[in-house]
């Protein structure tokens, strides 16, 4: 039976003002309605933003270790509910259960990590160039954050944003994807349970075009953190620039795995299958391009195609399923259209290329492999489905050149056993993350995650130096002069 959910505003679960609703179906079985959720509008956004604004005064003054403690308690509950939540991820979004559980584990790790940040939130203390003067930085919250998230990591990505935003002392208006509203609700329910003060975290369901825009334009929202497509991100950056808001945007990718002739080919094969077809190719980090050294091209490709053909498609809750459906009808049509373009531009189709025949009535597409050429549409555009374009490289330089020749810059990977080649690749690949002897998937939450070029806006997510703490706090510089006289920097300093 479908679950009816509500918005969460100022500590209360409430319907949208209009009372209108939308429904979300299981992508692996489209006759099953999973969730009925509010179709919110401007009025709901306005109430949520006002609640967040009011709550900010007190929350921003709450000691950071105490803010972190709420995250710690949330992590504990997430851990207890991992199985239940993992199944909801699979039902609502379609990824197979081990991946659904991985999604939840990422949120557990993230909440524990940022709970600890409550006791760090470091600034720096440096010497002053003048005597009897201190110089230091402290971190301050930014204000009300609008968080807008996609469907492909429906618990992990909200956790990437909510956990650091809260520990840094911000309050939040959270708009999840309309395709995973139940996952978002289950995550927010936990913060309600741990007693987070009213108004600190607000959840508003609805569509990007109706309420996303309202969040972006609202005068009381200070900053936006968005993860989603490059097209939506570009619009968000424009609107935020016009309204003077900070915008942290993590966007699409066209990631490549390079396999050199000296690579451990079995290892590379496992990586290429997981990178290309894990989550049905619906990861920003999916390896949708496979660049093979010409000496191993035929041999590797034969094995790659044979493995892809054997992948078992179906409902992700079944143990034998290796690949689930794509998320919705729109995505299904979009992926099939990209495949048609590939055929028209005469890329060589080796397997797949059409809807898959399955017992379930869902959005299943066969794992698809093309041999392509640099510059082709299917080699340049993010498809976000189970489609891999294979390219041939003459040598390392050529492979790196092909990998870099895209507007995106999220992730890249190289398989080689030659330490010199791996060293050159890690330096020359133009992406935010580089993997060596591992696929493009597998980021850990205690290092920054973010793309360059059209994949990111330079405000990474997750932990580590240069990660989310920088995105969700501002740095205040404090000079304290206790000399009792006017001291002029650069002028009263004498270097003999
Ligand atoms: P999307 O269509 O851009 O949507 C992302 C979010 O933005 C959704 O909540 C969406 O609302 C909302 N939105 C849409 N139009 C909006 C508007 N005009 N104003 C404000 N918000 C708006 O992306 P998606 O299909 O959900 O996700 C897939 C994309 O995300 C891929 O490109 C993938 O590479 C990228 N991604 C990137 C990362 C990363 O870290 N780099 C991670 C995961 C995914 P709706 O509810 O209406 O959809």
Features:
alpha/beta; Aldehyde Dehydrogenase, Chain A, domain 1; Aldehyde Dehydrogenase, Chain A, domain 2; 2 domains; binds NADP nicotinamide-adenine-dinucleotide phosphate
Written account of the structure:
The chain folds into two domains: 3-251 and 455-479, Aldehyde Dehydrogenase, Chain A, domain 1 (3-Layer(aba) Sandwich), CATH 3.40.605; 256-436, Aldehyde Dehydrogenase, Chain A, domain 2 (3-Layer(aba) Sandwich), CATH 3.40.309.10. It has helices spanning 42-61, 64-80, 82-93, 97-117, 156-167, 181-193, 208-217, 230-243, 265-277, 297-310, 329-344, 377-380, 396-404, 419-428, 468-472; strands spanning 3-4, 7-9, 12-14, 21-26, 29-38, 125-127, 133-141, 144-148, 171-175, 201-203, 223-227, 246-250, 256-259, 289-293, 348-351, 368-371, 387-393, 408-409, 411-415, 433-436, 452-453, 473-481. The strands form six sheets. It has a seven-stranded mixed sheet, sandwiched between helices. Helix 1 packs across helix 7. The chain has 496 residues and is an alpha/beta fold. It is globular, with a radius of gyration of 24 Å. Bound molecules: NADP nicotinamide-adenine-dinucleotide phosphate (NAP). NADP nicotinamide-adenine-dinucleotide phosphate binds next to helix 7 and helix 8. Keywords: Oxidoreductase. GO terms for molecular function: oxidoreductase activity, acting on the aldehyde or oxo group of donors, NAD or NADP as acceptor. This is Aldehyde dehydrogenase family protein. Homotetramer. Residues 13-477 form the Aldehyde dehydrogenase domain.
């Amino acid at each position: 039976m479908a679950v009816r959910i509500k918005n969460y505003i100022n500590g209360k679960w409430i319907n949208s003002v209009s009372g209108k609703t939308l429904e979300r179906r299981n992508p692996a079985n489209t006759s099953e309605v999973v969730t009925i959720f509010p179709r919110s509008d401007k009025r709901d956004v306005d109430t949520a933003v006002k609640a967040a604004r009011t709550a900010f005064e007190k929350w921003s003054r709450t000691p950071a270790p105490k803010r972190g403690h709420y995250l710690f308690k949330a992590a504990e509950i997430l851990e207890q509910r991992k199985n239940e939540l993992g199944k909801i991820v699979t039902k609502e979004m379609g990824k197979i259960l081990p991946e659904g559980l991985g999604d939840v584990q990422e949120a557990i790790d993230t909440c524990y990590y940022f709970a600890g940040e409550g006791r760090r939130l470091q600034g720096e203390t440096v010497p002053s160039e003048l005597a009897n003067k201190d110089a230091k930085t402290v971190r301050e919250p930014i204000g009300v954050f609008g968080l807008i998230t996609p469907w492909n990591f429906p618990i992990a990505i909200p956790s990437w944003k909510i956990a650091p935003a809260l520990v840094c002392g911000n309050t939040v208006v959270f708009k999840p994807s309309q395709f995973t509203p139940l996952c978002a609700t289950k995550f927010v329910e936990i913060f309600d349970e741990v007693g987070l003060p009213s108004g600190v975290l607000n959840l508003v369901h609805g569509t990007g075009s109706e309420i996303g825009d309202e969040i972006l334009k609202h005068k009381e929202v200070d900053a936006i953190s968005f993860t989603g497509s490059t097209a939506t991100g570009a619009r968000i950056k424009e609107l935020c620039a016009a309204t003077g808001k900070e915008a942290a945007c993590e966007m699409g990718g066209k990631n490549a795995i390079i396999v050199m002739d000296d690579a451990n080919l079995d290892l590379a094969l496992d990586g290429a299958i997981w990178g290309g077809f894990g989550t049905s190719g619906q990861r920003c980090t999916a390896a949708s391009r496979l660049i093979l050294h010409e000496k191993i091209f035929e041999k590797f490709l034969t094995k790659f195609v044979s493995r892809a053909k054997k992948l078992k498609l179906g409902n992700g809750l079944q143990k034998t399923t290796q690949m689930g459906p794509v998320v919705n009808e729109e995505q299904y049509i979009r992926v099939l259209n990209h495949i048609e373009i590939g055929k028209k531009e005469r890329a060589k189709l080796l397997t797949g290329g059409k809807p898959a025949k399955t017992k379930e009535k869902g959005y299943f597409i066969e794992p698809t492999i093309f041999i392509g050429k640099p510059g082709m549409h299917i080699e340049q555009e993010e498809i976000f489905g189970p489609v891999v374009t294979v390219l041939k490289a003459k040598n390392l330089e050529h492979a790196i050149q092909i990998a870099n020749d895209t507007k995106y810059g999220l992730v890249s990977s190289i398989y080689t056993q030659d330490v010199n080649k791996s060293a050159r690749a890690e330096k020359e690949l133009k992406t935010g993350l580089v993997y060596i002897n591992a696929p493009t998937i597998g980021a850990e939450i205690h290092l920054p995650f973010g793309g360059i070029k059209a994949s990111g806006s330079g405000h990474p997510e997750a932990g580590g130096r240069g990660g989310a703490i920088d995105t969700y706090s501002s740095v205040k510089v404090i000079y304290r002069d206790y000399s009792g006289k006017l001291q002029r920097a650069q002028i009263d300093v004498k270097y003999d």
